């Protein structure tokens, strides 16, 4: 355990989050996502896990240390429901609330069609699978920057 670091953030996840640079994308996904096969195509090349928690809890932990990119309009992306593109299920509403709390303001969570989401995921830095069993608990985040002290 480390002081000030959410205990859900294991050493492998912390390493990957630290190694990411500005603009690198991170996938956080549910148990049904093709996480291992997608992860093998990412820059990191292997699947990371935060098991036995919901996607929202995992994302809350991740966003406690990861800044979101303020230079792009789609720094937070959700997978759209097939055939119901405008519907936002409870798992995505929970993640929206976690994002807003982490950023201290309302933050846009952009919907992306399922297959387009898979293609974006393949270009991500890494994939973190969670224990989420609800459908459409899949998200992409772009890492932002931490400004110098006093700015």
Taking pLDDT < 50 over at least 5 consecutive residues as the criterion, the unreliable ranges are none
Under CATH, the topology can be stated as RbsD-like fold
Q: What coarse outline follows from CA principal-axis ratios?
A: globular
CATH class: Alpha Beta
Major β-sheet profile? 6 strands, mixed
Mean pLDDT: 96
Q: Percent of residues in beta strands?
A: 15-25%
Secondary-structure arrangement, i.e. CATH architecture: 3-Layer(aba) Sandwich
Helix-strand pattern = HEHEHEHEHEE
Number of separate helices? 5
Query: What is the number of E strands?
Result: 6
Strand line-up of the largest beta sheet: 2-5-1-6-3-4
What is the first-to-last residue Cα distance? 31 Å
**What is the total domain count?**
1
Please give the share of residues in helix. 25-40%
Rounded Rg: 14 Å
**Structural class of the secondary elements?**
alpha/beta
Assigned CATH superfamily? RbsD-like domain
EC number: 5.1.3.29
Catalytic activity: beta-D-ribopyranose = beta-D-ribofuranose; alpha-L-fucose = beta-L-fucose
GO molecular function, one term: L-fucose mutarotase activity
Enzyme class: isomerase
